[in-house]
Amino acid sequence: MAGVPSPYSGVSTLAFVARASAFAVGVVYGSIKLSVLKSQKKAHDKAEAKAHH
């Protein structure tokens, strides 16, 4: 089980914080990107449906 490293565990606190921050930024970016893509697809589908009628 990987948790918060204890002092003198050989794991850099800076590296741990950097990995956690990169993960958090990736999750936020992914959720924003997904919502943008979903809205674009919805607009595209709506325009396509209008063009067929």
From TrEMBL:
The chain crosses the membrane at residues 12-32. The keyword Mitochondrion applies. One of its GO terms (molecular function) is proton transmembrane transporter activity. One of its GO terms (cellular component) is mitochondrial inner membrane. Its main location: mitochondrion. It is found in: Mitochondrion inner membrane. Pfam families: ATP-synt_E. Keywords: ATP synthesis, CF(0), Hydrogen ion transport, Ion transport, Membrane, Mitochondrion, Mitochondrion inner membrane, Transmembrane, Transmembrane helix, Transport. Belongs to the ATPase e subunit family. This is ATP synthase E chain. It comes from Carex littledalei.
